[in-house]
Q: What sequence folds into this?
């Protein structure tokens, strides 16, 4: 009997059920989409912040002091220690390798440019542009084009296995070379493939594939420093603790958190004789910006949840209020308050479950659309969220209908039937 | 008569009128808060981004020193919109002949400009230096006072503290500009400038600085400016999407509540019609009611929404979000449209029905 009442109510009052269901669906859609965006926004903004540059720097442990002003290296070229290029793919073998979005080795060497009978001493920077690197079975692409995304090239980027170079913008003003022409660098003829503009010291330098720099220096496999771009978690007091002073489980927790410090520590472990450190300008400020944006989106998600709860409540209240006459009839036929209330609650639950499920799916699609159009990447919702969303939908629907149901069951059947309330 | 009808309608069905007004207030408040935040979030985030330090650099052409009044010139262009710090660099030798980069600067300005520097203790007296963590073992391995020499002249310094940044600063020695100039006679060659503002404002300031000091090169720090623009753009887009969703939900909440309310009053409608009210009068009556409700809700909601926005600003950015009164007309117009829509829709449905049918309760 009870089931039939509920079933008939759904079958006969399609319009009303549809309206209330639509409100629930919409509310759940908005809530799901906002929750999905809020949980993912940290990661997305973190990736955008990576455009500001690498946040970790790996240098040789026993290095001598850098003597560099305005991008001109005054240190004798063979002085100091080097890292081994062959060790670099191990960066992708560290615990947080999925958080490492790219790395670029650098090897500055002093060269002489001979042009029009004059010679000029300048710095040639050897690096990866977009090099295919293999670690184990994994292949990945890394270099300045991903870690230093603000570098702009007029002409073409050199290939990593070519002998082409880029000429810095300000250097080019002194030595106008058409891209495609050859120049003589320290007795070697190289082709200039493009003009590089960075807004930094590289504008006064030449940039070349690292193999060319190594050849000029006469040290195959040498790397002076490596810039590593990693997705990190804002540092807190725990992150700043010294790993040597930690006991087993605390150390494990520190090691397995993507703090800049712990990723630097793992890089140091992976590359022999290296010293890794966070670049504080990038790493420290990232945390602050990230926290602000995450906080903002979190508060807005609360507002969205509140607004959708309100919309669901309003729709349910209206739907029940419209059915006073029915309540009057049921009560006139002898239904108790409990029986009337349970019918309404059963209907509300059914509506909430259907609306919640449809809303969850629609919210997932909406979040995906937001992710694609704003961040050019996917925002996915973990399916474990479904039961949580359904429970919330049921609770909100109940809360929204409770006041209206209480009023409805308290009605005097006579007045209700005459439609005078 | 018209006014009295409007007033009585609201007073007699207090509960439902209050519910409709409540929905309207909440919707208007949420819309106001979202629009306020959307307008203000750029300014708030730009301030955060200024912690990344300079976004403009002024350097003497071909390594030459800047004119002596460059700092005051730049400051007069900036006003209170930015921070500027001078830097003078050269290579000196330690007592055992090792080369090291020495920088003269103004520590008070650097403290404001480069907040990420991790400094153990800032120099406070003359002849005190701030030594980079990597330079320390070279210049002062036992933390003793040390000598540096440049072109035959030497200076006696003690390390007040160390600086760690993870970048070039770690291998340098920093002195106060006064010590540096009296020792070497070299004037600052670089000014690092952090300006807050939109890309257009920053470009305008760069032009002004270039005009004021034509002998120097003004360069943007592209790395910082581009990253900032990207993050700001994405955050604003996300916020806009969220605002659109929330406002849509709130508007639908108002729509459903109001439509219910108007539909509920079909008996009033029928009686008026039976007593000879014209369609135009009825439409006008319900429209006026809806407009009054929308306007009242919008004004109360606007005040509430400014409060919410200010609270979010305080909690999240530690600075209040300024009320934007330019938002008010938008919220007001939006509220009226939603309420009118939710009144007109049921009325046009009811108009086709005979009053007698409604009065019989069918």
A:
């Amino acid at each position: 009997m009870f089931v039939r009442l509920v079933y008939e109510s759904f079958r006969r009052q399609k319009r009303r059920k549809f309206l209330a269901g639509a409100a629930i669906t919409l509310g759940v859609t908005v809530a799901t989409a906002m929750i999905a965006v809020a949980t993912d926004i940290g990661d997305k903004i973190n990736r955008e912040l990576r455009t500001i540059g690498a946040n970790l720097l790996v240098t040789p442990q026993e290095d001598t002091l850098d003597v560099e002003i305005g991008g001109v290296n005054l240190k004798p070229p063979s002085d100091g220690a080097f890292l081994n290029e062959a060790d670099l793919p191990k960066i992708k073998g560290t615990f947080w390798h999925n958080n490492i979005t790219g790395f670029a080795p650098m090897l500055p060497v002093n060269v002489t440019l001979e042009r029009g009978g004059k010679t000029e001493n300048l710095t040639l920077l050897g690096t990866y542009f977009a090099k295919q690197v293999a670690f184990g079975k994994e292949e990945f692409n890394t270099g300045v084009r991903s870690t230093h995304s603000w570098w702009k090239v007029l002409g073409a980027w050199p290939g990593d296995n070519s002998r082409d170079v880029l000429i810095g913008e300000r250097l080019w003003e002194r030595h106008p070379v058409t891209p495609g022409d050859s120049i003589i660098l320290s007795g070697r003829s190289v082709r200039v493939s493009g003009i590089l503009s960075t807004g930094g010291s590289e504008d006064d330098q030449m940039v070349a594939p690292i193999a060319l720099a190594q050849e000029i220096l006469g040290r195959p496999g040498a790397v002076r420093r490596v810039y590593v771009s990693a997705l990190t978690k804002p540092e807190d007091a725990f992150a700043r603790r010294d790993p040597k002073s930690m006991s087993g489980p605390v150390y494990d927790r520190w090691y397995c958190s993507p703090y800049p410090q712990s990723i630097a520590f793992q890089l140091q472990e992976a590359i022999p004789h290296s010293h890794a450190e966070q670049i504080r300008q990038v790493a420290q400020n990232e945390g602050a910006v990230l926290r602000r944006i995450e906080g903002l989106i979190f508060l807005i998600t609360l507002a969205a949840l509140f607004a959708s709860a309100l919309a669901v409540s309003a729709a349910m209240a209206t739907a029940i209020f419209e059915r006073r006459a029915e309540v009057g009839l049921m009560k006139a036929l002898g239904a108790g308050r409990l029986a009337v209330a349970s019918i309404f609650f059963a209907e509300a639950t059914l509506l909430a479950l259907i609306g919640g499920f449809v809303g969850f799916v629609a919210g997932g699609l909406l979040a995906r659309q937001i992710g694609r159009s704003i961040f050019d990447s996917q925002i996915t919702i973990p399916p474990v969220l479904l039961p949580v969303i359904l429970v919330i939908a049921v609770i909100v629907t109940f809360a929204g209908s409770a006041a209206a149901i209480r009023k409805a069951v308290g009605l005097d059947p006579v007045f209700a039937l005459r439609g005078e309330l | 008569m018209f006014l009295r009808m409007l007033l009585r309608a609201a007073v007699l069905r207090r509960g439902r009128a209050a519910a409709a007004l409540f929905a309207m207030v909440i919707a208007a408040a949420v819309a106001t808060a979202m629009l306020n935040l959307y307008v203000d979030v750029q300014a708030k985030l730009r301030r955060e981004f200024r912690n990344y330090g300079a976004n403009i650099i002024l350097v003497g052409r071909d390594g030459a020193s800047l004119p002596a009044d460059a700092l005051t010139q730049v400051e007069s262009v900036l006003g209170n919109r930015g921070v500027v710090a001078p830097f003078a660099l050269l290579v000196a030798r330690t007592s055992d002949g090792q080369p090291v980069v020495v920088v003269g600067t103004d520590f008070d300005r650097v403290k404001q400009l480069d907040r990420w520097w991790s400094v153990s203790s800032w120099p406070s007296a003359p002849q005190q230096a701030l030594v980079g963590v990597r330079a320390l073992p070279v210049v002062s391995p036992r933390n003793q006072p040390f000598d540096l020499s440049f072109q035959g002249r030497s200076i006696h310094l003690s390390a007040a503290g160390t600086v760690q940044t993870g970048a070039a600063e770690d291998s340098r020695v920093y002195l106060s500009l006064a010590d540096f100039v009296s020792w070497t006679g070299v004037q600052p060659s670089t000014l690092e400038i952090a300006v807050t503002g939109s890309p257009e404002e920053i470009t305008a300031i760069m032009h002004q600085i270039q005009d004021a000091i034509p002998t120097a090169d003004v360069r943007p720090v592209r790395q910082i400016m581009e990253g900032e623009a990207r993050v700001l753009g994405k955050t604003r887009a996300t916020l806009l999407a969220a605002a659109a969703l929330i406002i849509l939900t709130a508007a639908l909440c108002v729509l459903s509540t109001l439509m219910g309310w108007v539909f509920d009053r079909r008996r009033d409608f029928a009686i008026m019609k039976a007593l000879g009210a014209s369609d135009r009068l009825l439409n006008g009556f319900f429209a006026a009611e809806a407009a009054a409700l929308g306007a009242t809700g919008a004004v109360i909601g606007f005040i509430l929404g400014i409060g919410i926005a200010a609270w979010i600003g305080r909690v999240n950015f530690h600075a209040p979000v300024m009320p934007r009164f330019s938002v008010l007309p938008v919220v007001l117009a939006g509220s009226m449209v939603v309420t009118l829509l939710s009144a007109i829709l049921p009325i046009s449905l009811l108009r086709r029905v005979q009053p007698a049918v409604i009065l019989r309760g069918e």
Notes: Chain B touches chain A through 78 residues (CB under 8 Å). The longest helix of chain B spans residues 222-264. The beta strands of chain B are 56-60, 82-94, 99-105, 118-119, 128-132, 146-150, 153-164, 172-176, 190-195, 216-220. Residues 2-47+230-359 of chain B form one domain.
